[in-house]
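Is this the right way to post structure tokens for a design question? Let me know if I should format differently. Anyway, here goes:
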């Protein structure tokens, strides 16, 4: 029973971490139509910066969690306005190739700056312990990760469904041309969405580093799982991304525990089943 409870906690925490990372790439792809293959690099950069600030510079964990996503957001702003914006009229292939090339550039830079060994960030002292849940000991940090992920999910739902900016973003998702015709500054929306997606990649990088660590090549593992979540959840759907993230998190966690040599196959089999049964994703629109 204790092992089952631990795996359930691990599945929930990993699923919410995937949600935090993937919600950014979901809204960017849903609204801009840009599949940012450097998104995993933003996540890993967040992990590395968190390691440098927390483990090397001695900055408190929560201060690093506030600072690092802002740095990644600025990087996202520069990438969208300087590099990606001129390619919007060239088609999706140019953007895919461009961001994929950037991912490899980041990969080499990370190896030069931080080396090739795995680096792990210590959880904040208040959460670096176990707590009793149903009579069993579970890591406090994983419980905190679930709470943080749930809070972000509620915030994104409220922002998308109940605010003016959320309405503008939904309009851009439904029909970019119509939204522009009604006076919406679509370039400003594009930039805001890309910066928001980059910021959440930075958040995921910092809070994920105590669990997953950071090492060269990890950005591509995270990118693949994010794309699986994107396909399973549905285009531009925050609720679909949440459900898919939890589903993939549980499948990954339990398959790695039960049949580790088949975990990746099982994850992609899940995606294949969803594509066959519901091509638009669990909660997505047909395109």
């Amino acid at each position: 029973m204790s092992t089952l409870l631990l795996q359930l906690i691990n599945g929930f925490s990993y699923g919410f971490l995937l949600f935090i990372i993937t919600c950014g790439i979901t809204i960017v792809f849903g609204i801009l139509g840009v599949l940012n293959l450097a998104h995993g690099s933003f996540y890993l950069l967040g992990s590395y910066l968190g390691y440098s600030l927390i483990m090397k510079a001695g900055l408190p964990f929560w201060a690093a969690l506030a600072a690092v996503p802002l740095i990644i957001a600025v990087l996202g702003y520069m990438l969208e306005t300087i590099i990606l914006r001129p390619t919007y009229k060239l088609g999706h292939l140019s953007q895919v190739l461009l961001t994929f090339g950037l991912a490899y550039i980041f990969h080499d830079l990370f190896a030069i700056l931080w080396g090739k060994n795995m680096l792990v960030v210590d959880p904040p002292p208040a959460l670096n312990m176990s707590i009793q849940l149903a009579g069993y000991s579970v890591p406090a940090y994983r419980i905190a990760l679930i709470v943080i992920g749930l809070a972000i999910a509620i915030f994104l739902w409220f922002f998308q469904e109940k605010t003016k900016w959320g309405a503008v973003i939904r309009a851009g998702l439904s029909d970019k041309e119509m939204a522009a015709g009604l006076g919406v500054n679509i370039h400003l929306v594009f930039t805001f969405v890309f910066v928001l997606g980059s910021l959440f990649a930075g958040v995921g990088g910092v809070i994920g580093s105590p669990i997953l660590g950071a090492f060269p090549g990890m950005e591509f593992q995270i990118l693949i799982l994010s794309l699986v979540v994107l396909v399973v959840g549905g285009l531009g759907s925050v609720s679909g991304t949440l459900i898919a993230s939890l589903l993939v998190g549980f499948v990954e966690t339990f398959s790695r525990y039960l049949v580790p040599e088949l975990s990746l196959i099982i994850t992609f089999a899940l995606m294949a089943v969803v594509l066959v049964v519901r091509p638009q994703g669990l909660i997505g629109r047909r395109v």
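Format looks fine. Someone answered above. Worth noting: The longest helix spans residues 2-32. The CA atoms of residues 60 and 202 lie 16 Å apart.
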